[in-house]
Fold this sequence. Notes:
The protein is an alpha/beta fold. The protein has helices at about 10-20, 50-60, 75-90, 115-120, 140-145, 175-185, 200-210, 230-240, and strands spanning about 1-5, 25-30, 45, 65-70, 95, 110, 125-130, 150-155, 165-170, 190-195, 215, 225-230. Helix content is about 30%, strand content about 25%. The longest helix is centred in the middle third of the chain and has 14 residues, at about 75-90.
Amino acid sequence: MKTLLLAGTQEARALADLLAADGMDALASLAGVTDAPRSYPIQTRRGGFGGEDAQELFMRDGRYDAVIDATHPFATQISNRSLTIAQRLNVPYLRLLRPAWQSQDGDRWHNVATEKAVANLVPKGARVFLATGAQSIDRWADFAKGRTLFCRRVDRTDEPFPYEGSWIIGQPPFVLAYEMRLLKTYAVEWVVAKNSGGPTRAKLDAARALGLPVALLDRPARLDCEHVETAQEALSWLTTQNA
Length: 243
């Protein structure tokens, strides 16, 4: 079996470790949005494919026997496109999707579907920790009007922050004490985040500890394909494809 692993998450890295331990033939593909990602224990490529036609040619020439999509839960473009290509090539496709976060006692979560819904919820004049990623910063132009935003990114940049507020440079993982200190330092009044799931929920725990409201963006609709939640389940699925 030759596997294409669409990577970039902790689940992808855990699966790569399992594939390497079993000596499986696999390639991890990273989007390349982080300047210096941690290395994977399997063959790795970085950067986009250059569109649907180029990706299909890459997958066809690579003669992959299976595709495991372990990209971010909100990476809808690459997921939708990869599934479409895999179906055309008749290649088995699996979505490795970690569970969404669930609220706990004391959380002040407001589940919302769109950026526009966030704008209707968060009052003008608010100081907002925008924990949705630097790659989507352009989508918040309307929301930024009349609000002060602080957006975290992994890599330093000379690019000026486009709105009132600033970039916050930080490398995960983040612990509760750090996130509480950050929210206090920037006098944050609202947290805006995607329901990404996974271990990086310290910002939400910090918001709960400080009594802050959270606007939490709902996940995109699930793809019409097989799904698992853990790297071990993905490895088991791959083993059945090779049976």
